[in-house]
Amino acid sequence: MLNTHTLRTHRLFYGGGLNQVQVHDESQTPTALLSQFELAGSEHDVVLLSWLSDDRIVALDERGNLYLWPFRPGIKVAIEPVLALNLMPFKDASLQGSNLWLMAREQGERLSQRRLFRIDLVALQVTQYPPCEFDFVGGSMVALENGDFAFYQRSGKPGYPFRTHGLVRYAPRSGQVSLLPLTGKPAPETISVRERFFFQHRHGLALTADTESLTAIQGTDGETAYQFELQLIDFHRQQMRWSRPVRALLPNQIADEYDCDELVEALDAIAGGDQRACHNDELQRFVECLTSATLSDDGERIWLGWQDGCVQCLSLQGELLSPLYQLQQETAKDERASLSPWHDQLTLLDVKTDGQAPASSILTLSMGDPEWATLWQVALPSVAPGSLCQGAEPQPALCQRIGFDLQLPEPLLGTPVPSGQLDIPCRDSEDQGERLASLTQLNALMPALATYFERHTQAGHLFFAFVATQPGGDKVHSEKQFFPAVAAGNDQDREQLAQLIEHFNHWPCASRLMGQAGAPVLADAVLSLIDRADYLPLLARYFNAIGQQESVQRYHLNRTLPALREIHAGTSELAAFNQQVPPPWNNLNHTVVSTCDYDDD
């Protein structure tokens, strides 16, 4: 059946990239791309993407643009929206058969006033329900069996007495709203770079820390450790299943050494009953040591990830199913070191259960800030032999750096989507060797791309997205990120980039093409090579190739050429460059005013 294929979406966040939907066949090794669809007009997050039937796909973005289309293999096409609801950004949508439900706010409505929408995907009819006055955390909507919906609610009011949370149940037919208060206190800060509410939408479960439960534990060695209780909230049962401590942390596992004194003072005060807001920063830092919590693919186990590079497994009843594992990596000297020496963010992306004896879980995880995180994998026993002691020393577990390959069929390989974007697979966008492999692939595609644009004279844009396939959402690098990273390598790396520009210099159609968001084609590749005098003849050929089109002048006249002239001022190479390029590129007095003071261009 077609709907066993995986649907994935990604978008370039720089320059107004459109959402791209790809259909992957993961039964092959490597994974094969079957088709790619560009969601026309969709520059905002996709909140729902699903198979509607064996051969139809539905997608909805956070502005209420709805897309429905049939799946066909071997194509790259744009999909127009069938409905445009023009809503304020929202996160809550649920597909129930042929009905799509969403909770959102219309343009002009009060911040507190959201309403339920039901879209009949067969008749394309929209039903609006009366406004709801209750508050809830965006992205926490769960459909219940009887047609009601459940939401997670937490108070945004500051102060310990007001820091409450609970579950809201909403019945669309009657409009009845009921609130189930939950015990404990959520984290004091509602906005943070780290997650504190770990929501498992498919299972209707959430894990969060109870900050009211903070306790100090005096060890036999005189050291004080701190712990909080982890709570499992069940949306379907409308209850908290359990609340229990899972790990005690020492101060140096929570904060850097120079922050430990302030941390200990605050946590001791909280454990002693002092709940003043002046301790909130340290309390927040403590609960955010738990950076990830997710369920295994079979929904039977909970895996927790901590900022010090440790993971552990719990049952759905909160019982320990594994020791604490200290994740390690192999260094260049063939030595073992912690995967997280600097308290980085560990995010569990996927947990697959290996049914072979002995049973184990295969964890795929990212380490570091999502912008530059690296991808790792480790196989761990889910159930450890013998008794499990919470205070036992962590057991080392060696991780392997990984990446995921994506095989593109020949017809799709060198074909941009209608906006001009061409996706280039990159197995690991944080590894220079893998970046160079992607650049080598792009260089090999340049002759075919030249032919494509000569044949498709109506196509006027070309820009590249370097896509690393990974669980939990593909990682996409723009040219602005990718080309400078390549140029930061050695001479051989920069030569690959120079080769790409040289390919483009020979395209007869180069002067009519534009890059992303009004920038010239390969603008960031050119900017990445301006510091080397031996590349000035290459860049001169580039400026001759793109001609004198006014639409591309702003970027190069305001960024590339001023920097180039400053670096090579007074040199014979700069004089030769100015002689080789046509106006306005060699005219120091020619300027183009930027559209605003904060324009990067």
Characterization of the model:
Helix content is 19%, strand content 33%. The chain has eleven helices and 34 strands. The strands form eight sheets. Strands 21, 22, 23, 24, 25 and 29 form a six-stranded mixed sheet that branches. Strands 1, 2, 3, 7 and 31 form a five-stranded mixed sheet that branches. It has a four-stranded antiparallel sheet with strand order 4-5-6-8, with no helix packed on it. α9 packs parallel to α11. The longest helix is centred in the last third of the chain and has 24 residues, at 432-455.
Question: What is the percentage of strand-forming residues?
Answer: 25-35%
State the secondary-structure class.
Answer: alpha+beta
Number of continuous helical runs:
11
Mean pLDDT: 92
Q: Compute the gyration radius: what is it?
A: 27 Å
The level of helicity is: 10-25%
- Count of distinct strands: 34
**Unreliable spans:** none
End-to-end separation: 48 Å
Largest sheet entry: 6 strands, mixed
Shape: globular
